[in-house]
Specification:
Layout: H1 2-21, H2 28-51, H3 64-74, H4 76-79, H5 82-87
Helix pairs in contact: 1-2
């Protein structure tokens, strides 16, 4: 979501900078070239945002298999404080 926001900000800032440099008395061909350049820049920014590596997201899956695996690896240290955590006593696991 942050990439999309940064992309929009980047495109808008480039567009506003380009529009400031263009004067209202310039010929139509210059305006078309300015618009073409702005669209090329926007396409470049969009392409870079889409090609950039994506972050890894943990899915947080909890299944009986992962619970059993955790119990096997870490033993009772995980299961023992469950009642304290359910009561809201997080100091028991700190």
């Amino acid at each position: 979501m942050m990439k999309v926001f940064l992309l929009v900000v980047s495109v808008l800032s480039r567009a506003s900078a380009l529009m400031v440099t263009m004067s209202s008395s310039s010929p139509a061909t210059t305006k078309l070239q300015g618009r073409r350049q702005m669209m090329e820049q926007a396409a470049g920014v969009l392409g870079a945002a889409l090609i950039a590596p994506k972050p890894a997201f943990a899915d947080g899956a909890v299944s009986p298999a992962t619970v059993q695996r955790a119990r096997g690896i870490y033993g009772g240290r995980i299961a023992a404080p469950k009642s304290a955590v359910d009561k809201g006593d997080f100091a028991a696991v700190a």
